[in-house]
Amino acid sequence: MTQDGAxxxxxxxxxxxxxxxxxHLPGPTSDTTATYELTYTVRGAAEVGPDVAELYWDFTGxxxxxxxxxHIDVHLPGDAPNAT
Length: 84
Description:
two-stranded antiparallel sheet
């Protein structure tokens, strides 16, 4: 994960109080605007057939206080064209 292009330290679930992934935000977090980029890979999330691929994935969930713009790139396996 990055904040305004700078990598953030990420702690995995076994090392966090919440039991989920947590990242450390530098400096004060109130009264500021920052851009975050989260990149991850989920292998085997799409069901691929001979002429169609299906992907059912909740990319943002419903636990966020508010999201601005969300941009998602999906890269399908094999020779399938990529979707944006």
